[in-house]
Amino acid sequence: MPTTYHQIIEKLNAYKSKYYKNLLLKGTIFTLLALLSAFLVINALEYIGNFSSVWRGVLFFSFLTAASLSLYFWITIPALRLFNLNKPISFDEAANQIGSYFPEVEDRLLNLLQLGRLNVQENALLVASIEQKAQKLSVINFPDAVKYQSNNRYVKYLLAIVLIFLVLYNVLPELFTESTTRIVNYSQTFEPQAPFKFNVKNNELHVFKNEDFTLNLEMTGKAIPMEVFLQTGNGRKLKMESGTNKSMFAYTFKKVQKDVDFSFESSGFNSNSYKIKVLERPNLSNFTAYLSFPNYLNKAEEKVINTGNLIVPAGTTIKWVFNTQTTDSVNLTFKEKTEYATPKGGNTFEYARRIMQSEAYKVQLKNEYSNNKDAIEYYINAIPDEFPTITL
Asked: How far is the C-alpha of 311 from the C-alpha of 383, rounded, in Å?
């Protein structure tokens, strides 16, 4: 086969490659255009219609179907044919397309291909004819029949959709954030959106056991309700007190004993669920003071229970044993100096001190959440030794 004929075949292959690259480019633009348009439409429909679970499911799977079909027909198929993994166009089809683009080619390229498929091994006249036709066509660059610039007319529509998308996202973000969430979670039940929001103003939702807790709430939005109710986990409905500022509401839970689950309700709209967590302060259950007197007094050791104010002879050693609850550490402060009791396990702590002079002391308990609420202060009155005297 003449060399020029093989060059024609190579040009046809180059044309087919560029043809599918152009289809892939066009398909990418079409896919983006279709998906963005579908995304805008279904979100707008859901935003306006606030559909039921069934219709949101229809919108969701319609979008998935449109996305799948677009990717398959406009991207997957051209990509497979570009790499010859699926049936590409034949040389005859390519020749017809090139002939319609180049008037000087017409049917000559197709005729050349038809001659090339004949058995020309022993026909010198046919070989010369093929070479002559191939020479005339060799000056034409077949891939030039494919113009990437032809896709510019579709790009302007894509840019218009992107611009609309960006404008709506900045002006009406809930069109995407809220509608998309409802469509993706189509099986979930969503309550109608309230024209106001419940904003808890407390920095932390925890309270210490047996103490009061005041819950503060601020209402914001287009319409502020006149009344707000608390709905607790045990089914109680409690009216919140409004403040001087009509957007502020409060309710005080008295002597809270356990965790409180609650939510807010107003004008038929409900808030998210919240929980007030009950923490425990460290607590002193009882304590015992063991008094070891100086040896010269010949006085047996004494045990004093739950009495912190003591009167002892100077030189007495006192060992305190503290029984506590939810306590991590116990310390005693004497004249601005703090001493730490030794933990003995089971919320028990011990500390010993020899008393040489009268002094006040303070007991402080700690855990990860707090110190003891009320001060624990005592006084030790140390009776000094008297000088020896003699009576005659």
From this structure: 7
